[in-house]
Amino acid sequence: MTKIPVRFAGLGVAAALVGVVLAVPAAAAGAFPTFGLPFGTGQSVYSAGIHSDNGISGVKNAIDFSPGDRIVRAPLAGTVRIQHCDGGDWVTVDHDGGRRTGYYHLEGISVTDGERVAPGDALGRTGNALPCGGSSTGAHVHFTLWTLPTAAARSGDSRDFGVGAGNWNGMSYDEVSTKVAETYGEPIDGKTFGGWQFTAGTEQYSGSATEVSSRVTSPLPGRFRV
Fold this sequence. Notes:
Distance between the termini: 17 Å
Helix content: under 10%
Order of helices and strands: EEEEEEEEEHEEEEE
Oligomer: single chain
Number of helices: 1
Largest sheet: 8 strands, antiparallel
Shape: globular
């Protein structure tokens, strides 16, 4: 299977909240939670590697996954926040402690806004959907990690706190992958998901996945079995 290049470019979709200044988070998130993988185990998975949210520059807070069964699942309990664009919807999930994960390119979205999900719950299928713009080659999920301001960690609806807390309705993916990513993006490098530690490479779309228990490392882009 070939590398799945993902290059997001804005298609002129206007941001819903023009003029809103993205503030630096008031406080850093706590210890990194025990995330699972955003797909089921017992299968072969292809990854195009770790990259920035726009695949060009900035913090490397994203990684592409293409699991064999094509089902994308919640890696941690949280609350679904559906982001709406003229071309359709995409999925984000707010987790305790202010962290948010994103799932772009999904087809057949199977969750609704405000729904609570448990680890392993299906969110949709890998695909090439471009609801807010961008481009995609090869069905996959563009999995992204952010840390939102401390207000987002409150028990209330995080959408009450504006763009910084995740109300990204109508924003082009160019806006999300640059302005939002620059302020709130959290690096994938060194993070562990489902017993696999991911390490970023020096280039975009590169790195490695190491199974913590066996210390077996798979280079990225590449395929590994979970």
